[in-house]
Design brief:
The chain is α+β, with helices and mostly antiparallel strands. It has two domains: 2-244, 2-Layer Sandwich (Beta Polymerase, domain 2); 247-305. Strands 2-1-3-7-6-5-4 form a seven-stranded mixed β-sheet, with helices on both faces. Helix content is 55%, strand content 14%. A hairpin with a 4-residue loop joins strand 4 (58-61) and strand 5.
C-alpha cells in the first residue's frame, strides 16, 4: 500500500509525488515494487534489503541518496509469539523521502491519515523526521514491554498451580520477544550513534531530539534487559515448581492407594476358603465393613497428622 503526503508531517495526502513529498509504503505488492524501481528510482538491492525480515539496522550515505534501516516492534501471531521486530527503511533523496516497511506498524500506521499531525509544525527536515521515527520507535518498545510484563504476570498465576509445560512454553515465548527487542534496540542505538557522528545534525532542535531518542532507546533497552533477567530466573524457578506440583500429585495418589488398600486387604483375608470363626455369624459382614471403614479413617487421620494430606 502506497500513501503520498505533501510534507513529512503527513498532513495533506496527494495522488502524485512532487519535490519535498513523503512517500509511505507498507507491505508492497509486486506491482508496487516495480513502481518503486521505475517511478521512484529506488535501487533493487535496497528494496530487497528493507523487505528482508532479518535485515540488520544500518546507515548508508551516497552522493545522491541516504538510506537508514532501523528495526521497529510489531504485533505478531507467529507461533504464539505476541511481538517481534521488522526493518523499517528510510530512503532520502533531494526530491522525496520514502519510508518502506514489510508490514503495518504503529510507528507509521497506514490506517491513520496523518500519523505526525500533532507535530506537523515541528518537523523541519528529513533528519528531524528520522529522529522522530526513532523516538516513536523507542516509545513503542516501552509500550510493548509493559504488555509483555503484564502477560508474564498472568502466566505466573497459572504456573503456580500447573503440572504441565503449557504455561512454561508461554513464558519461553515471552523470553523470545525480549531477545528480539534487546537485539533490535542495541542495533538502533548504533545507528543513532552514527547519525550523531555524521555531522548531519546541525540544528539545536535536532540535537535535542537526538538526545531524547538516545534516552528513550536506552530506557527501553534497560527495561528489556531487566525483564529478560527476571524471566530467565523465573523459568528455572517455575520448572522446579512444576516438578514439585507433580510430586505432590503423585504423593496424594500414593496415599489414596494406601487408604484403599486397607479394606482390600481385609476383604481378601476374610474371603479365603478357610475357617475364620465368623462364617456362621449374622454380624460378620457388617463387622468386617465397619472394621475396614474404621481402619481407613484411622489411616487418613494419621496421614493428616503428619501433614501428608
Amino acid at each position: 500500500m502506497i500513501k503520498i503526503f505533501e510534507t513529512f508531517g503527513g498532513y495533506v495526502e496527494i495522488k502524485e509525488p512532487h519535490k519535498g513529498c513523503w512517500v509511505n509504503i507498507t507491505h508492497p505488492s509486486a506491482e508496487e515494487i516495480k513502481k518503486l524501481t521505475g517511478e521512484f528510482g529506488l535501487p533493487g538491492d535496497v528494496i530487497t534489503d528493507i523487505l528482508d525480515q532479518d535485515e540488520r539496522p544500518r546507515i548508508e550515505f551516497e552522493d545522491e541518496w541516504t538510506l537508514i534501516i532501523m528495526r521497529i516492534p510489531v504485533e505478531s501471531t507467529n507461533n504464539g509469539v505476541p511481538f517481534q521486530t521488522v526493518p523499517l527503511g528510510i530512503f532520502i533523496t533531494e526530491n522525496f523521502t520514502l519510508t518502506l516497511c514489510l508490514q503495518n506498524n504503529e510507528v507509521l500506521p497506514m490506517d491513520k491519515p496523518s500519523p505526525f499531525r500533532e507535530q506537523y509544525n515541528q518537523i523541519t527536515d528529513s533528519i528531524n523526521f528520522i529522529l522522530r521515527l526513532f523516538l516513536r520507535s523507542g516509545n513503542l518498545y516501552m509500550k510493548y514491554l509493559k504488555q509483555i510484563n503484564h502477560m508474564t504476570s498472568m502466566i505466573e498465576q497459572d504456573l503456580e498451580k500447573s503440572i504441565k509445560n503449557k504455561e512454561l512454553n508461554k513464558l519461553l515465548k515471552m523470553e523470545k520477544c525480549l531477545v528480539y527487542f534487546i537485539t533490535s534496540i542495541k542495533a538502533n542505538e548504533i545507528v543513532l550513534a552514527k547519525l550523531r557522528n555524521s555531522k548531519k545534525i546541525t540544528t539545536e532542535i535536532n540535537e535535542d531530539l537526538l538526545e531524547d531518542a538516545f534516552i528513550e532507546n536506552k530506557q527501553a533497552l534497560e527495561m528489556a534487559q531487566i525483564y529478560s533477567d527476571i524471566q530467565s530466573g523465573m523459568m528455572d524457578a517455575f520448572a522446579s515448581v512444576i516438578s514439585n506440583n507433580l510430586n505432590d500429585v503423585m504423593k496424594q495418589l500414593t496415599l489414596i492407594s494406601i487408604i484403599l488398600m486397607i479394606p482390600t486387604l481385609i476383604a481378601s483375608l476374610f474371603g479365603m476358603n478357610v475357617p475364620n470363626l465368623m462364617e456362621n455369624s449374622a454380624w460378620a459382614m457388617p463387622a468386617i465393613l465397619m472394621g475396614s471403614l474404621l481402619l481407613s479413617i484411622l489411616g487418613v487421620i494419621l496421614f493428616r497428622k503428619r501433614q501428608w494430606f
